[in-house]
Write a structure and sequence with these properties.
single chain; 467 residues; alpha+beta; 2-methylcitrate dehydratase PrpD; 60s Ribosomal Protein L30, Chain: A; 2 domains; 4-stranded mixed beta sheet; two-stranded antiparallel ribbon; 19 helices
Length: 467
């Protein structure tokens, strides 16, 4: 166990960087390693599934057109480009399905750290599985801790001011992979601080392709920050997170700076991420879980539903506002971020996956009619991501329940087999056709990642044409 206590009057980022610099794979608890591997498996699955979605080919084309030093492979499309450019290309793939893991206070996590690390592998001759896991755990931990400290979901989201803390985690992950020393790490994080500003929620309301492209920018910035620090470029090393000029000072609400270093090296907050079973905004998941559970428990069909009343916490409002968009979504992102669309789709299809976003699926009249009979209210007594679902049937029967832990929550986790099933469910949507043997080999390597000698050879090249 590596302890990195905060000394008096010290910038918390210094303690975080010491943890990154000093922690080895052997210092990580086995439970942390196992959960990290599950997050990496899940993220690679959604990267495969998102590799051909809207906007991705255009981003890849831009990256390839610009050219540059052939460092890192672009999976699914082939070719080598500078590592930071590979980050710009891979990051959006990981988010495109909106199926990656989420932390209750930090929001999206692994869809930032994993693509940043995949892109950065081209900066090393070889990266072992143990090195990849260690870099991921440390980067993810910092990402989550900063998100908890700024109360990104609980306070920031409702004010339309959350996000951008992810760059700190990506810088830490890439910095560890590149073996930056302590001074270089602190400079890289300081450079990363200059790239942050809690972004508003404009890209969500209505939802735009920037929701996924944002991940590419963060990955690109993190790699550039580390490469600059490695070459002697300095960044601020005081008031990076706290103090008058620190990141937390940008919040217009009370933050929790002690969370940055509380139980550092003992408590791994990155273990508390929630895996998604459905390809939609996490704020829709407990409502989806609620209607599916009621339909299963009480054996009624979508055709029997007269109306559905849903209560959600204020933090989930982006999934119901503006009303004209959420009750009449016209684009894939609009649908992914619409509680009524996702619940109505789940009621009729029993699932919410990529086939829910085809032009034919989005135009289904029965789904659209049920959406008109779904009402959603904001209830501040509900926990973040919770939902209360009340279904009234045409015969007058009514069923209601509170749903706090949708499938994939740490208190309701996916089994290994369910994780494998999700992985294989994403494969048909890949931009590059993968054989069954390739998929089986990938899954085997991911579950035994600590034994992998070369991550690029085992995980990236099998996804790449003419590799």
């Amino acid at each position: 166990m590596v302890r990195s206590e905060l000394t008096s009057e010290e910038e918390p980022m210094s303690a975080l960087c010491r943890m990154v610099a000093n922690t080895r794979y052997e210092d990580l608890p086995s439970t942390t390693v196992n959960l990290a591997k599950r997050s990496i498996i899940d993220t690679l699955a959604v990267t495969i599934g998102g590799s051909a979605m809207e906007g991705i080919p255009a981003i890849v084309d831009l990256v390839k057109t610009r050219g540059g030093k052939p460092e890192s492979v672009i999976p699914f499309y082939g070719g080598r480009v500078p590592a930071s450019e590979a980050g710009l290309a891979i990051g959006p793939m990981s988010r495109a399905m909106d199926l990656g893991d989420v932390h209750e206070e930090t929001g999206h996590c692994s869809e930032y750290t994993v693509p940043a690390l995949l892109a950065a592998t081209g900066l090393r001759e070889k990266v072992s599985g143990k090195e990849f896991i260690t870099a991921f755990v440390l980067g993810q931990e910092i990402l989550v801790r900063v998100g908890i400290a700024i109360r990104s979901i609980r306070e920031g989201l409702g004010r339309g001011r959350s996000g951008s803390h992810q760059v700190f985690g990506c810088v830490a992950a890439v910095g560890k992979l590149l073996d930056l020393n302590l001074e270089e790490l602190e400079n890289a994080e300081g450079i990363g601080r200059g790239m942050t500003q809690p972004h508003d929620q404009a890209m969500y309301t209505p939802a735009t392709l920037m929701v996924r492209v944002h991940h590419g920018f963060v990955c690109q910035d993190a790699i550039n920050a580390c490469l600059l620090a490695q070459r002697g470029i300095t960044g601020p090393r005081r008031e990076v997170l706290t103090g008058m000029r620190g990141y937390l000072a940008l919040a217009s609400w009370e933050t929790d700076p002690l969370a940055l270093t509380r139980d550092l090296g003992e408590k791994w907050n990155m273990e508390d991420v929630m895996v998604k079973p459905w390809a939609s905004c996490k704020f829709t998941h407990t409502a989806i879980e609620g209607i599916l559970k009621q339909m299963s428990d009480h054996q009624f069909s979508a055709e029997e539903i007269a109306s559905i009343k849903i209560d959600i916490p204020p933090q989930s409002s982006l999934a119901v506002e503006p009303r004209e968009t959420k009750w009449n979504p016209q684009t894939v992102p609009d649908c992914q971020f619409s509680v009524p669309y996702c619940v109505a789709t789940a009621a009729y299809c029993g699932d919410v996956f990529l086939d829910a976003y085809t032009p034919e699926a989005m135009a289904r009249q029965d789904v659209r009619d049920l959406m008109k009979r779904i009402s959603v209210n904001l209830d501040s007594t509900l926990a973040p991501f919770g939902a209360r679902v009340s279904a009234t049937l045409k015969d007058g029967k009514r069923f209601s329940g509170d749903y706090l832990y949708a499938k994939g929550h740490p208190k309701n986790p996916l089994t290994d087999q369910e994780l494998i099933d999700k992985f294989k469910k994403c494969v048909p949507y890949s931009a590059y056709t993968l054989s069954e043997s390739t998929v089986d080999a990938l899954i085997e390597n991911l579950f035994t990642l600590e034994k992998v000698d070369d991550v690029a050879a085992s995980l990236i090249l099998p996804l790449t044409p003419d590799a």
